[in-house]
Amino acid sequence: MIGDAVRIKALNTLGADRFYNGLNAFGIGRRSGIDLPGEAAGLLRAPAKWRTIELADHGFGQGVAVTPIQLATAYAAIANGGLVMRPYVVAAAYDAAGNEIMRHTPQALRRAGPGRELCTAFRRSNSLALAAGARL
User: Is this model's pTM higher than 0.85 or not?
Assistant: First the structure.
């Protein structure tokens, strides 16, 4: 398919290291720090260990294992213009008397990606694809 050829060419131009660093910046292949025990890091091997074909494979999502929290965190970062926030399950906790004993406040972890403009373009392109799919 033409889209696949374009994607592979773009990945080859980008290169394995930049592709890996971009995924990692959005939280793929690393623990998010969510307030749940036993969080997995997913699977994203270092590019030095990739075979030649793996750059293309990873571009299709093969050979990469992503947790639901990583995926949600990455999409939230795109919605936030590239700002990766620490995910939380519980915003606050209270004792039996109703006193607040713990509160999580929003915490930015890092800025990922090339910036707000690309994140905005990505959101727009996904909206167009979803709208086109709804017409089918």
Answer: no
